[in-house]
């Protein structure tokens, strides 16, 4: 008689030990918790200090301004009485940044998808390295390249836009001259923020759970359908965050804009006409030659840029928080 052993169920693994007060109060945990809390508090203190400094110096200038700071087109703090306003600067900053975002974000998302889901590994790694390397190029190098290369080569594009889209008024060219305008600045800013948006978006797309993609492929989805149904919903919040990072650089870019733009204080809806101005460019151009009141006026414009950046980033956080489908965890 042969006796065979019947398999028995293996005993369940013991549960992990509960977290006790002793383990929760280890010196390393206390140090890490204190450093983390201190870093957050330090960040808030720095932001508050910057806001207080800008507010105090701005108030000193605004009390002497004879014009409306938000609607005046002139900038002459040295006049008697002093008159200065940010209408042209606000318009130029917003318009150039919007042009940059409209051009850069779709291209950056496409590059990120190509690197993460289409390109062979031997091509994806060098391409990703080149894109990351573009983010390290100094702003002044972009500015010199824009002034010497981009501006001359955009004359033909400006003429084409004026010929075929001049009826829109926006692309109507009413002056003869080099392409030192807000449209050129927007294209240059798009090139500058492209590597930032691409790098962040690429890393987000690479974090998509493989099970989601494999499940879609198993159901017969094409590669584009996998990207549309699995990758883009998962990475939407990351793309928004990447876009806000790029927008932050576009709003505050200084040297590249100052090198390319031919500034003036004429508000024009003709984007192909030379002129315009931005907050950062105006501060960089006038700070050295300004007197005490002029510097306080420039600081007042910097306060507006500071608040504008906070509003943009806060709006992005609200969009992500209020739309649950933007969360990758819900993809």
Descriptive account of the structure:
Belongs to the binding-protein-dependent transport system permease family. CysTW subfamily. Part of the binding-protein-dependent transport system for phosphate; probably responsible for the translocation of the substrate across the membrane. It is found in: Cell membrane. Residues 90-316 form the ABC transmembrane type-1 domain. Its main location: membrane. The protein has one domain (43-330): MetI-like fold (Orthogonal Bundle). With 331 residues, it is an all-alpha fold. A two-stranded antiparallel ribbon has the order 1-2. Helices cover 67% and strands 1% of the residues. The model is unreliable at 325-331 (pLDDT under 50). The protein has helices at 21-24, 27-62, 87-118, 121-134, 139-165, 182-206, 210-218, 223-252, 255-260, 279-286, 292-322, and strands at 75-76, 83-84. It starts with 20 loop residues before the first helix and ends in a 9-residue tail after the last helix. Helix 3 packs antiparallel against helix 4 (121-134) and helix 10 packs antiparallel against helix 11 (292-322). The chain has eleven helices and two strands; from the N terminus they run ααββααααααααα. It is globular and about 85 Å long.
List keywords for this structure.
331 residues, mainly alpha, MetI-like fold, 11 helices
Oligomeric state of this protein: single chain
Number of strands: 2
State the domain count.
1
Q: How much helicity do the residues have?
A: 55-70%
SSE order in H/E notation? HHEEHHHHHHHHH
Strand order of the largest sheet: 1-2
Question: What is the residue-averaged pLDDT?
Answer: 86
Considering the protein shown, what is the CATH homologous superfamily?
MetI-like
């Amino acid at each position: 008689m042969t006796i065979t052993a019947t398999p028995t169920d293996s005993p369940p693994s013991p549960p992990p030990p509960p977290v006790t007060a002793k383990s929760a109060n280890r010196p390393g945990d206390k140090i890490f918790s204190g450093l983390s809390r201190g870093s957050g508090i330090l960040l808030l203190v720095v932001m508050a200090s910057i806001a207080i400094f800008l507010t105090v110096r701005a108030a000193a200038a605004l009390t002497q301004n004879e014009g409306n700071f938000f609607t005046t087109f002139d900038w002459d703090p040295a006049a008697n009485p002093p008159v200065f306003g940010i209408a042209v600067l606000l318009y130029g900053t917003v318009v150039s940044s919007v042009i940059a975002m409209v051009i850069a974000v779709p291209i950056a998302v496409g590059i990120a998808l190509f690197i993460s889901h289409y390109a062979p590994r031997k091509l994806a790694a060098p391409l990703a390295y080149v894109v990351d390397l573009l983010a390290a190029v100094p702003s002044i190098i972009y500015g010199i390249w824009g002034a010497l290369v981009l501006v001359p080569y955009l004359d033909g594009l400006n003429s084409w836009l004026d010929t075929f889209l001049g009826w829109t008024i926006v692309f109507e060219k009413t002056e003869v001259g080099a392409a030192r305008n807000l449209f050129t600045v927007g294209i240059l800013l798009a090139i500058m923020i492209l590597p930032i948006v691409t790098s962040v978006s690429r890393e987000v797309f690479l974090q998509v759970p493989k099970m989601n993609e494999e499940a879609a492929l198993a159901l017969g989805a094409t590669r584009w359908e996998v990207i549309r149904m699995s990758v883009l919903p998962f990475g939407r919040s990351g793309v928004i965050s990447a876009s806000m990072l790029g927008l932050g650089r576009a709003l505050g870019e200084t040297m590249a804009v100052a090198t390319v733009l031919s500034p003036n204080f004429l508000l024009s809806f003709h984007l192909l006409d030379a002129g315009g101005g931005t907050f950062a460019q105006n501060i960089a151009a006038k700070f050295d030659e300004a007197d005490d009141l002029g510097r306080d006026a420039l600081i007042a414009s910097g306060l507006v840029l500071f608040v504008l950046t906070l509003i943009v980033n806060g709006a992005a956080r609200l969009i992500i928080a209020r739309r649950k489908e933007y969360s990758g965890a819900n993809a």
